[in-house]
C-alpha cells in the first residue's frame, strides 16, 4: 500500500498489526515527510529487519517528473508530472519574499470548463488519489530542494469535486507527525460548490478559502463559468458567509479581469455591493492568453477597477504576475504537450 495514501492513524494501525511499537510508525513517517527519504534502505535509524518488514508492507510512490520549466523572470517553476496510469498533471512552485508556495492539482483535467482556463480545454479524466495530491508536495520539494511551508489547492481541477480526497490530504499535510504544515498556510480555491463549502466549514480545518468568482452578475458569469447556471453567485456567497461565520476566516475572491467584458466601472461597483457583508479580499488577476477570445485590460483600467473597490471599502490588490515566460498558468504546459502529441 502507498504510504502517502494513509492517515496517521491508518499507518499506526498497520504498524501495530505488524507487532511493532507505535513509535516505529513515527520514525517511518519522519523519514518520508520530514527528511524526504523515500527508500527504506535510507532509513538508517531502523534495523535491517524493520526496513525489510516495511518494504514488504508499504510503498512510497511519487509522481514522475517529465518536464520542468524555470522562469528567468522570477524563478517560478512549473513541473509536469506523470502518474502511474500515464496521465499527466501540473504543479507550480511560486517564490515570495522569504517563503515559497506549492500550487497543486486535485484532478486530471477539470470538468468545470471555465472559458478562459487551459485546464478546462484539455478535458476531464479523473480525480486524483490522496497519494497523488500529497505526492505533489513531496515531489516539488524533492525536485526543487525547497522545504514547502505553504500550499494552495489551486492547480488543475476543482478541489470540491474531489472532496473526500482533498480533505484527507489536508489532514495528512497538517498532522504534526507527518508534513506538520500550519493549517493557516493552506488555501483551497474553489469555483463555488455551495453544499461543499458549508460542509467544509464543519471539518474544523480552519484553512483559507478562495472563491473564483470572475464576474459580478450571473448573466456574465454564466458565459465564462458554466457551473454558475447551477449555483448562482448569490448561493455561492451565502455559503462563503456561512464558512466565514464558522471559521472567522477572511475569504479571498479571485477575479479574472477580461478586457471589455468584466472590467467596467459598473462591474467593480456591483462586485463591491455583492461583498459588502463579507470580510473579503479581492485578488484581481489579468487574464492569461489561453484563448484568442480573451484579452487583458490595459494597466490603467485594472488599477481603476481596484481603486473603485477600495473606495467602496473592499480590500483588493492586483496580483503580481509570475512565470509568464514558462506558461505557469494552470493547465498550459499540459495542454501544449497534449496538442503536440495529437
UniProtKB/TrEMBL annotation:
Cofactor binding annotation: Binds 1 [4Fe-4S] cluster. The cluster is coordinated with 3 cysteines and an exchangeable S-adenosyl-L-methionine.
Active site: 90 (proton acceptor), 330 (s-methylcysteine intermediate)
Annotated [4Fe-4S] cluster binding sites: 110, 114, 117
The protein's Enzyme Commission number: 2.1.1.192
Metal-binding among keywords: yes
MF-aspect GO terms: 4 iron, 4 sulfur cluster binding; metal ion binding; rRNA (adenine(2503)-C2-)-methyltransferase activity; rRNA binding; tRNA (adenine(37)-C2)-methyltransferase activity; tRNA binding
SMART domains, alphabetized: Elp3
Gene3D superfamilies: 1.10.150.530, Aldolase class I
Keywords carried by this UniProt record: 4Fe-4S, Cytoplasm, Disulfide bond, Iron, Iron-sulfur, Metal-binding, Methyltransferase, rRNA processing, S-adenosyl-L-methionine, Transferase, tRNA processing
GO biological process, one term: rRNA base methylation
Principal place of residence: cytoplasm
Entry GO CC: cytoplasm
Annotated localization: Cytoplasm
Enzyme class (EC, first level): transferase
Binding site for S-adenosyl-L-methionine: 157-158, 189, 212-214, 288
Note: Reaction proceeds by a ping-pong mechanism involving intermediate methylation of a conserved cysteine residue.
Classification via NCBIfam families: rRNA_mod_RlmN
Function, in words: Specifically methylates position 2 of adenine 2503 in 23S rRNA and position 2 of adenine 37 in tRNAs.
Similarity field: Belongs to the radical SAM superfamily. RlmN family.
Name of the featured protein: Probable dual-specificity RNA methyltransferase RlmN
Organism name: Pseudothermotoga hypogea DSM 11164 = NBRC 106472
Amino acid at each position: 500500500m502507498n504510504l502517502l495514501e494513509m492517515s496517521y492513524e491508518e499507518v499506526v494501525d498497520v504498524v501495530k498489526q505488524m507487532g511493532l511499537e507505535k513509535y516505529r510508525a513515527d520514525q517511518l513517517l519522519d523519514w518520508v515527510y520530514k527528511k524526504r527519504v523515500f527508500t527504506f534502505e535510507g532509513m538508517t535509524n531502523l534495523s535491517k529487519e524493520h526496513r525489510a518488514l516495511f518494504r514488504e508492507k508499504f510503498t512510497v510512490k511519487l509522481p514522475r517528473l517529465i518536464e520542468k520549466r524555470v522562469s528567468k523572470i522570477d524563478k517560478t517553476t512549473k513541473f509536469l508530472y506523470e502518474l502511474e496510469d500515464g496521465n499527466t498533471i501540473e504543479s507550480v512552485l511560486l517564490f515570495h519574499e522569504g517563503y515559497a508556495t506549492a500550487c497543486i492539482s486535485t484532478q486530471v483535467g477539470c470538468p468545470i470548463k471555465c472559458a478562459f482556463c487551459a485546464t478546462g480545454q484539455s478535458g476531464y479524466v479523473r480525480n486524483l488519489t490522496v497519494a497523488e495530491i500529497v505526492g505533489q508536495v513531496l515531489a516539488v520539494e524533492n525536485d526543487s530542494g525547497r522545504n514547502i511551508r505553504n500550499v494552495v489547492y489551486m492547480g488543475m481541477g476543482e478541489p470540491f469535486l474531489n472532496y473526500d480526497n482533498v480533505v484527507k490530504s489536508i489532514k495528512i499535510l497538517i498532522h504534526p507527525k507527518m508534513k506538520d504544515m500550519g493549517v493557516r498556510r493552506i488555501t483551497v480555491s474553489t469555483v463555488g460548490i455551495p453544499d461543499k463549502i458549508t460542509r467544509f466549514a464543519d471539518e474544523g480545518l480552519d484553512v483559507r478559502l478562495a472563491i473564483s468568482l470572475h464576474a459580478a452578475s450571473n448573466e456574465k458569469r454564466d458565459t465564462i463559468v458554466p457551473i454558475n447556471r447551477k449555483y448562482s453567485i448569490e448561493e455561492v456567497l451565502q455559503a462563503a458567509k456561512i464558512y466565514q461565520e464558522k471559521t472567522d476566516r477572511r475569504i479571498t475572491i479571485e477575479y479574472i479581469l477580461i478586457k471589455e467584458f468584466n472590467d467596467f466601472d459598473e462591474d467593480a461597483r456591483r462586485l463591491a455591493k455583492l461583498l459588502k457583508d463579507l470580510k473579503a479580499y479581492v485578488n484581481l488577476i489579468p487574464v492569461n492568453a489561453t484563448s484568442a477570445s480573451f484579452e487583458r485590460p490595459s494597466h490603467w483600467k485594472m488599477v481603476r477597477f481596484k481603486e473603485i473597490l477600495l473606495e467602496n471599502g473592499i480590500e483588493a490588490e492586483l496580483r503580481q504576475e509570475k512565470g509568464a515566460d514558462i506558461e505557469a498558468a494552470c493547465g498550459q504546459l499540459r495542454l501544449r504537450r497534449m496538442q503536440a502529441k495529437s
